[in-house]
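2024-03-11 09:14:02 INFO worker-7 job=invfold-0412 stage=load source=structure_tokens
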């Protein structure tokens, strides 16, 4: 009989990664040849030498301003896909997204706003470690002509933290980064 011994720290790390994956804090990348893959809605594919960047905003207002700052600092535009209730709840933030030149698309909420925190305080990976994980996964799955979808809710601070690295590495691969093709609100 094989017995696997795992330290409490290693188990906590593995459980945290599982929670990250399940709660949607991991980036989602869609292959344009397989619309609807990885649980995302089918969309138009960007140019073959580009990667479209989209943020899912089902609820919360804390992380969107950080993401907007990073995008502005990198001169990049992205699509924001927000629940209609979010657009009504945060009209100033919705206007700020549009004024910055980002398409804002209304969509039905797909995330549960009552998702528990990823790990108890002082447990699990740090924000920097989670951001590195999100960036590595997004970059590993990113393909020319694909779509990177990242969460932008209040339980996803790793998104804004990971975004500079994602943008820099995609540009190093000679890929342009921009919003999904088509019109927003």
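2024-03-11 09:14:09 INFO worker-7 stage=emit residues=185
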């Amino acid at each position: 009989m094989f017995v696997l011994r795992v330290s409490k720290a290693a188990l906590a790390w593995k459980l945290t990664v599982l929670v990250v994956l399940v709660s949607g804090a991991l980036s989602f990348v869609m292959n344009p040849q397989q619309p609807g893959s990885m649980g995302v809605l089918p969309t138009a594919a960007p140019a073959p030498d580009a990667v479209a960047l989209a943020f899912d905003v089902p609820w919360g207002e804390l992380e969107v301003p950080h993401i907007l700052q990073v995008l502005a600092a990198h001169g990049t535009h992205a699509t924001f896909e927000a629940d209609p209730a979010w657009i009504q709840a945060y009209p100033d933030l919705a206007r700020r997204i549009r004024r910055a030149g980002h398409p804002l698309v209304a969509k039905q909420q797909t995330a549960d706003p009552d998702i528990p925190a990823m790990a108890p305080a002082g447990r699990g990976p740090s924000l920097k470690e989670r951001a590195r994980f999100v960036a590595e996964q997004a970059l590993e799955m990113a393909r020319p002509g694909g779509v990177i979808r990242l969460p932008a809710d209040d339980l996803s601070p790793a998104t804004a933290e990971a975004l500079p690295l994602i943008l820099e590495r995609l540009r190093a691969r000679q890929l342009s980064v921009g919003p999904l093709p088509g019109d927003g609100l």
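2024-03-11 09:14:09 INFO worker-7 stage=report msg="The radius of gyration is 17 Å."
2024-03-11 09:14:10 INFO worker-7 job finished
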